[in-house]
């Protein structure tokens, strides 16, 4: 088959059809820890799983949770759930079980696919271990077209919510299709086989930004897990043997690699592009990539989970880096519209700051079962009739390029992870020995490097000082993923209050940055 021609068609039309087409080529689709699944294996496993789900769930169309970290079969499972006409919900094992329970409580699934092992539910069926293996690999492969029968929600990704409970962003098949259409020209490097790095957890929508583009181009995903990432020499050896040519990553991950002088073409000899996403790309990071990976493109992109991974992009040039200005986030992709509006929703003149609004076909369906929250951020654009999303990001447009400035609210990015400070505060308040709490981001060189918590213990709290701080970190780990746990906890007798009787965040930040 003609890879590049088909890749464009598959990317623009139907990723499932592309997978079926590439199944005839013998190409590798997923590589993980020495195991390889070819496209034909992926298609067969997804089809078998879809039939199994139909037999277990019958007419129940509730979303299917996929709990785990990295496994060669996680992506076939996502595809299988789609083929069964249901939405899948990837939940990484960095989410502790209580947060998984909160997600399950919102979704009321009939089926949970458990790669971590050990889940048992009274209200839902758990598919894991040998049962999961059989559902994927045993028996006849059902025939029929590889097209999800439903044009509804493809996946739901849970992200930090300010109330302390995560919120589920629903992305439809047609949103994903629009994303693939507008992103593929930037992503595709022609006919394969080529290899794409898969180093991010599947509950982070950045992973959608390489899984589907890779599959619709017939490329192989080289899967890297947390255990490997946490050991730099092991990671570098793994990368050096990966053959990866496309890296879609947060700046934080690459900055972590760049901290080692060894991170250069000897680690990723074939890389042709770094596509950054999820948080601000700093000039210093882009410059180091240009120096250590001559010839590789550096592309900055921007977009929230709610609008399907990313909606703008720009290739970063040496001039942009040399200008000393913050780097642009780019131009809207495809037919996406970006507007910068003032507090009343009116477009501001070029160069003026305002809230970024995204309007277009990749804008998702809203928050699962949270109509009031959805109505606050999603809207129908009067001019185009298309869906819009008010991002809460402040930015401006200069000479056709968009720039990101800051958030309007208390959402932060820490190592690429999206965190609502209210989420952390509300979980602190769930601890029975805490009476009040506030959380601030700590900045260094313009980016958040950790969270700092300020707490007031209840009278008669069992411990104080160091014991209390340790207890807080231990108990929070049962409620939130590790990346949300504050790096420091300061115990106070009372939180400072300003003249209006409100929490005085400035006084708190003076404790962090004494003048
Ligand atoms: P997430 O939903 O996790 O992808 O996070 C989306 C948020 O990350 C956006 O609303 C921005 O606040 C931030 N973000 C994403 N990409 C960029 C970028 N290139 N520069 C600055 N901030 C970004």
Describe, in short, the structure shown:
The protein is α/β, with parallel strands linked by helices and 515 residues long. The N and C termini lie far apart (66 Å).
Structure characterization notes:
Among the domains are: 6-230, 3-Layer(aba) Sandwich (Rossmann fold); 411-512, ANL, C-terminal domain (GMP Synthetase, Chain A, domain 3), CATH 3.30.300. 48% of the residues are buried. By secondary structure, it is of the alpha/beta class. Helix 2 packs across helix 3. Adenosine monophosphate is lined by residues 159, 205, 277-281, 300, 302, 304-305, 329, 391, 393, 404, 407, 413, 418.
Chart the SSEs and their pairings.
Layout lengths: L2 H11 L1 H8 L5 E5 L2 E4 H19 L6 E4 L6 H10 L4 E4 L5 H11 L3 E4 L10 E4 H9 L15 E7 L7 E6 H15 L7 E4 L9 H10 L2 E4 L2 H4 L2 H9 L5 E4 L1 H8 L14 E4 L6 H10 L4 E6 L9 E4 L2 H5 L8 E2 L4 E5 L12 E6 L6 E2 L3 H7 E3 L6 E12 L2 E7 L3 E4 L2 E4 H9 L4 E11 L2 E11 L7 H12 L11 E4 L13 H8 L3
The protein binds adenosine monophosphate.
In the CATH hierarchy, the third-tier topology of the domain at 6-230 is known as Rossmann fold
End-to-end CA span = 66 Å
Heterogens:
adenosine monophosphate
Helix coverage percent: 25-40%
- What characteristic shape results from the CA principal axes? globular
The average pLDDT value, as a whole number, equals 94
Write down how many β-strands occur, each being a DSSP E stretch of 2 or more residues.
26
**Any idea what the CATH superfamily of the domain at 6-230 is called?**
ANL, N-terminal domain
CATH architecture name of the domain at 6-230: 3-Layer(aba) Sandwich
Strands across the major sheet, in which order? 11-12-13-14-15
Structural class, by secondary structure, is alpha/beta
pLDDT < 50 runs, ≥5 residues: 1-13
Largest sheet: 5 strands, mixed
CATH class of the domain at 6-230: Alpha Beta
